[in-house]
């Protein structure tokens, strides 16, 4: 395990691109349960079925590592040995991720090594030159369209696989609560108003250009296809059963976050948003209700190798 120095000190992180370790911990179990397992299996098959490589560890780059959710989840599902490079602008989170990786093993029980790169995600085109896989989770909504284009082009040049998981798709709903009364047009409901305000807030610049927010996963899929990748998308929604105390805590944090972001986006509608929040807490955050929050996972396999692995579009 090691920490690599980056030639440049990362610029100060944008305040809306800084994530508390406690938030990442709160969402970790829901993330693990939501990930689209079929994409991980397909990736693993592809990695195993590639033409023989010189004996070396699989090289995996994880963007926006945070506390290390991706290596923790993926290492044991992928063949090994593995060499992970964990990239983030938050040195504290990187240190936690590195410590966590010491105990990881691959699917076959082989060594999983890790190094960290403390830098911004405005990476040079050569950043993935030797990678077999580039992955990211819960990150993509922060980037803009030119970033995605550069990312897809770099990965195509490297001939590496891409797995980007848990990107929000902008949808959520409370299942198990009374439906909207007949006669109320969907666009007039407070849910739709708050959702639209939150999604607009997500599109603000978080340090990587005007963010794509809920459109990012679909945009990534299109970029990868344009660069010859075979692309699979699969839903990975959170299904938060509010009878479970941990899932109820996550749901409450979400509803509070939606209120705060919607109010910041539409300050003139603060009273409407506050009333929506109060009703949510009083009438919806109860055992028996399931809060569904939409996410998408995207797997891209580079053209030549994908066809050898027998995976169709
Ligand atoms: C929502 S967290 C996801 C963390 C982790 N992948 C997970 O699934 O739990 C997004 C991560 O991206 C990092 N990040 C955001 N913008 C960044 C940037 N411009 N450069 C480097 N890291 C960034 C944050 O520090 C944070 O760790």
Radius of gyration: 20 Å
Q: Based on DSSP secondary structure assignment, what is the total number of beta strands?
A: 9
What's the mean pLDDT score? 91
CATH architectural type of the domain at 2-170 and 208-237 and 294-308: 3-Layer(aba) Sandwich
- CATH T-level fold name of the domain at 2-170 and 208-237 and 294-308: Rossmann fold
CATH superfamily of the domain at 2-170 and 208-237 and 294-308: Vaccinia Virus protein VP39
SS content category: alpha/beta
Unreliable sequence segments: 305-313
What is the CATH level 1 assignment of the domain at 2-170 and 208-237 and 294-308? Answer: Alpha Beta
Portion in beta strands = 15-25%
Q: Any idea what the shape is?
A: globular
Give the SSE string.
EHHEHEHEEHEHHEEHHEH
Head-to-tail CA distance between termini: 37 Å
Helix content: 25-40%
User: What ligands are attached or bound here?
Assistant: S-adenosylmethionine
Largest sheet: 9 strands, mixed
Count of separate DSSP helical elements: 10
What would you note in describing this structure?
The chain has 313 residues and is α/β, with parallel strands linked by helices. The protein has helices spanning 21-34, 37-49, 69-74, 91-101, 145-158, 190-202, 216-226, 245-265, 270-283, 303-308; strands at residues 2-4, 58-63, 82-88, 112-118, 133-137, 161-175, 230-235, 238-241, 290-301. Strands 1, 2, 3, 4, 5, 6, 7, 8 and 9 form a 9-stranded mixed sheet that branches. It has a domain at 2-170 and 208-237 and 294-308: Rossmann fold (3-Layer(aba) Sandwich), CATH 3.40.50. The chain is built from 10 helices and 9 strands. Strand 5, helix 5 (145-158) and strand 6 (161-175) form a beta-alpha-beta unit. S-adenosylmethionine is lined by residues 17, 19, 24, 31, 64-67, 69-70, 88-90, 93, 120-121, 137-139, 142, 207-208.
């Amino acid at each position: 395990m090691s920490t690599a120095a980056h030639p440049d000190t990362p610029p100060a992180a944008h305040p809306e691109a800084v994530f508390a370790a406690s938030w990442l911990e709160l969402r970790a179990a829901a993330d693990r349960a939501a990930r689209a397992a079929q994409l991980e299996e397909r990736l693993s098959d592809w990695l195993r079925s590639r033409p023989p490589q010189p004996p070396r560890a699989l090289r995996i780059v994880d963007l926006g590592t945070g506390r290390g959710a991706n290596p923790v989840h993926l290492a044991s599902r992928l063949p090994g040995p593995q060499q992970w490079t964990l990239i983030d602008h938050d040195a504290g989170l990187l240190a936690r991720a590195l410590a966590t990786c010491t105990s990881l093993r691959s699917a076959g029980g082989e060594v999983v090594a890790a190094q960290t790169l403390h830098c911004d995600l405005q990476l040079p085109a050569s950043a993935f030159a030797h990678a077999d896989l580039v992955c990211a989770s819960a990150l993509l909504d922060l980037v803009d369209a030119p970033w995605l284009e550069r990312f897809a082009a770099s990965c195509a040049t490297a001939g590496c696989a891409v797995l980007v998981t848990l990107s929000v798709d902008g949808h959520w709903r409370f299942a198990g609560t009374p439906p909207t009364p007949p006669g109320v047009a969907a666009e007039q409901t407070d849910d739709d108003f708050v959702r639209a305000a939150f999604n607009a807030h997500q599109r603000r610049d978080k340090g990587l250009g005007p963010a794509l927010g809920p459109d990012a996963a679909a945009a990534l899929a299109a970029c990868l296809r344009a660069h010859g990748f075979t692309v699979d998308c699969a839903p990975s929604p959170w299904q938060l059963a509010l009878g479970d105390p941990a899932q109820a805590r996550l749901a409450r944090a979400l509803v509070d976050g939606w209120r705060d972001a919607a109010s910041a986006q539409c300050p003139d509608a603060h009273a409407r948003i506050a009333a929506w929040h109060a009703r949510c807490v009083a009438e919806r955050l109860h055992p028996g209700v399931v809060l569904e929050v939409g996410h998408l996972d995207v797997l891209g396999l580079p053209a030549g190798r994908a066809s050898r692995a027998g995976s169709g579009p």
